[in-house]
Amino acid sequence: xxxxxxxxxxxxxxxxxxxxxxxLILIRLGLYSRSPEDPMSVLDRGWAVLVPLxxxxxxxxxRRTRPRAxxxxxxxxxxxxxxxxxxxxxxxxxxxxVYAAVLYGSAASARRIPRITVLLTVLGSVVPFALWxxxxxxxxxxxxxxxxxxxxxxxxVVRNHRDTAVxxxxxxxxxxxxxxxxxxxxxxxxxARVARELHDMVANHLSAIAIHSTAALSLDxxxxxxxxxxxxxxxxxxxxxxxxxxxxxxRDGGAEREPAAxxxxxxxxxxxxxxxxxxxxxxxxxxxxxVPAPVELAAYRIVQESLTNALKHADPGxxxxxxxxxxxxxxxxxxxxxxxxRDGPRAPGSGAxxxxxxxxxxxxGGTFTAGPDGARWTVRALLPVTEGDPA
Length: 391
Hints:
Elements: H1 10-28, H2 46-60, H3 67-82, H4 88-104, H5 107-132, H6 138-218, H7 222-250, H8 268-277, E1 281-287, H9 293-313, E2 319-327, E3 330-338, H10 352-363, E4 367-373, E5 376-384
Parallel strand pairs: 1-2
Antiparallel strand pairs: 2-3, 3-5, 4-5
Helix pairs in contact: 1-2, 1-4, 2-3, 2-4, 3-4, 4-5, 4-6, 5-6, 6-7, 6-9, 6-10, 8-9, 9-10
């Protein structure tokens, strides 16, 4: 199967055609590199100088697609040009082949070719001077440097600049990608945080509204309905206020609104009183000292969500026990409630509350468990409160 050479770049075609035409013009005008008396001009025939010129011009077509092969063939052509009267266009095109081999060739070629040209320059200076012992012999080394070392060095410098530009562009793209990933993660984390806050702040009131409205509709007792409506109104007002606080957090340029107060463990008593007003029999046993603000907020929300779940699912006559104890650098939170079949009205659950509690604990590096324990449902969270723990 014949090997198909890659199509040359259009700029390479222009270089090849331009070099060939320039060489033909110089030959036509009789402008050669050496005189007939030069001992190097072994072949003093017109056609002899054309062969290296045409071969070198053909190599220019491969300077970008096959730079190594083009340089090897061009080297043979420039050596052949030395035994003719010589053409300046052939020499100029050969320097371009050296430049292109370093610029477009492999990394190994880019390292090897400049070293070879340095060696050739040294040999071209030392050997003639050692043979002829005249300063003019050093001009041969200068000529070798001009034809090989200078274009090779130029190609090496340009290649380094090009590789540096490519590396910088890739680094910029990677930085932009990492920044976009960080932004996406930040947005996702913020959405999860807002979802947790929305659920924890409003679900308790809505659950109480759902349960008491169901009771008011199912019982034909004016006094019970009046009490249920009072609880519904109280929770509606409280839930509306919580929603306003959340909107104040999310609102841009919220200078008009006072910042929403972050719940603290000092508000547990009020939270328990609210749960009692909704019909739960709740006891609170709290023994803790000062804890970091993130831990305090997480503990408050865990108790709040546990009481909400107890209001929705626990037996109405059972007791709910809330306990907080700080020891050995850990805040131990426990909430237990009756677990079993509930005969009275209940509010539907989605499971988002347990997910939110588990996420809060995970963000602080703690442990969380929730599930039935005999006839009771137990929620327990261990939150680190030492300074070295994540917050």
